[in-house]
């Protein structure tokens, strides 16, 4: 990846005045004061040594050695194992000496999304008691990790703060520290010890679906925030509210090519050190005790060396992090991350442990992992010294964090109380400080308190859209306002500030007399997503209206009526929105504000004296694109400047004018090499749908329920499973004749793919072999299409075996499909008995010419 000239800017150089770092390789003097900066700092030539705020304690080290010396191999490997709470019982924790458990997104006590704080503590007590009842010489307390991404966001009734991208816009490290303190208190109140936070990616391409987990594209801000968050969360582990930090994901997850989740980061070693390393220097300097390895790969563009997946990169996990940087805590893998290494599986990977992974996150296959790892140690594939080092690191962290204090989780201050997981005033303050005013023409804002206001848009009264991903559920989907009883929507805030009699809500504005109001407030934007599902593919534009045309339609319905239009835009990243901004008199980037929608209206509505009650103080921590196909860091493909630069932001005190913006009509970015249809979730404009006879119903985004449809006489059973990554596939069981298909409302032209030997490609795992034909179709309307029989393919598969099916587009064209007007690129029609899991459905250029592509015989696939 070639970086643009301004990457090595003053803001980047400021990161090199590293918190607690000794840049011995570059020859600069070490910074000794927390947050110190130097105007003469130079780019680092190598990984710096980082002086941790938590120092080595000789007495504690002696205790670690004594405990390790008395452990059996089974007890050691058990300590290195982390299982999902859905897949393990307290009795098994005791039997296998398990060191850690986690709850993934969408995992709750008893699988009850509305589990109480007391329910969480009860589960924590059960696991803790089991870990202390083992027959080991010294019982080791278990530690529980959770994704508390923006507050304790997986727990019912917890306050949910703005996502990191909004907090970055606030440019307020002290605020981030207060949020970390509150989050630690909330986590400990549910009996959990460990947060998989802070996330410290420096995101270069906001096509990445995890962009909202980043504070900024500016490494200096990420470093500063990482230090503040970690220090506030962990403290000195002297307080019951302190929790263990896990800085993630090591390293380069924000720099993947085209922003592809779990993709390839192409960067020089210097770029990895000076850009992507910044957050680690801040967090490790503040004493972060754990580091989570990343899913991405690294190709060193300086040397040309491909280091492969981070979970197996010893040069980074051990060489850079542990040896050069001096990190003495432990490294944890990501969810089934070891299974992505060549020759490994989710249940077996000596290479990852030898590379430097200390604790292995094996959610479901933990029993097999323990057996395999013990066998690998006994066979000499993993040295006993590496096992002892890993266990020593785990014990060191547990001792430092006070887990050996003899208390059950329920005995800690605040345990089991709802009050401990809430701080609505702090969250409301945070929302006020994260709003970026991009446009405000003609004094559209602030709104007068005596104004009559029409409120429109799908997000005005949607807590799920405000909170985004990692909110109660993993993707933030499957939620309604009822799931957030201690929250306020933006509409709630407007009703309170203006009076319900002065506010009319009409989501689409259809039939409303817009001119009869004093102002229109449109609340629009992205809908919830998390990793992978949120990615924008490289060939697609970043035009918001491309994915959410309903937002453009609602603004078109209210603009130009002589009434000022104020748009509040909810998103997890900056997007191309010139069309929306032109239709708005005021435009506010509100990011993903969380549960406190009234924080938005605090700033939109004037005080009783007619003056602003609060001003806009936030500025962009990511540049805002001016074109539909931006390059990395929101620069255009030809180096065009962003529409709104890093640091841009208007205020009431400091106004500004935004002229009519040029419109970019691009519908595609470069040559399309792949068109995704379904990947973990629907990819717009396609919708995965069930069909039986004349009945049809969208499968939907629910990842946690089993659907049997139609309800009166089920023909299909659908549930979410894993084929490649967490909750990425739909397992479909045919109970009667039925079909599963993805359809677009518009016809799509696949001729360019066909001319380039394109194929319909998808991953499938057989559950139950078919006894009758399984017809795979591509259609172009009710009486237009082509089909082939895949039953011979499934006949050759073993249950549970993953297979990638590639069917040349020419096969469908030869059977009657019009590839220039395709509405359904994927349809499977079958009858009972048949069951299989499907994911990564896409049209791929060149795949039809692959050796493993199907050849199309007359009667089906040959």
Percent strand: 15-25%
Instruction: Indicate the structural class.
Output: alpha/beta
Total count of helical runs of at least 4 residues: 24
What is the number of beta strands?
A: 35
The main sheet comes to: 8 strands, antiparallel
Task: Return residue spans where pLDDT drops below 50 for at least 5 consecutive residues.
Answer: 1-40, 858-862
Key phrases:
alpha/beta; single chain; 8-stranded antiparallel β-sheet; disordered N terminus; disordered C terminus; 862 residues
Structure, explained:
The protein is an alpha/beta fold. Strand 34 (856-857) and strand 35 form a beta hairpin.
Describe the SSE topology.
Blueprint: H1 10-15, E1 21-22, E2 49-50, H2 58-69, H3 73-79, E3 81-84, H4 90-96, E4 100-103, H5 117-131, E5 143-146, H6 164-170, H7 173-189, E6 194-195, H8 219-234, E7 246-250, E8 264-267, H9 269-276, H10 278-285, E9 290-293, E10 297-300, E11 306-309, H11 314-324, E12 330-332, H12 350-355, E13 360-361, H13 366-378, H14 384-400, H15 424-434, E14 436-440, E15 453-456, H16 463-467, H17 490-498, E16 503-505, E17 519-525, H18 544-547, H19 549-558, E18 565-570, H20 578-582, E19 586-591, H21 598-604, E20 674-679, E21 681-682, E22 687-692, E23 695-698, E24 707-709, E25 716-721, E26 729-734, E27 738-743, H22 751-755, E28 759-768, E29 775-779, E30 785-789, H23 791-795, E31 802-808, H24 809-814, E32 824-830, E33 834-844, E34 856-857, E35 860-861
Parallel strand pairs: 3-4, 3-13, 4-5, 5-6, 7-9, 8-10, 9-12, 15-16, 15-17, 17-18, 18-19
Antiparallel strand pairs: 1-2, 10-11, 14-19, 20-21, 20-33, 22-23, 22-27, 24-25, 25-26, 26-33, 27-32, 28-31, 28-33, 29-30, 29-32, 34-35
Helix pairs in contact: 2-14, 4-5, 6-15, 7-8, 8-10, 15-21, 17-21
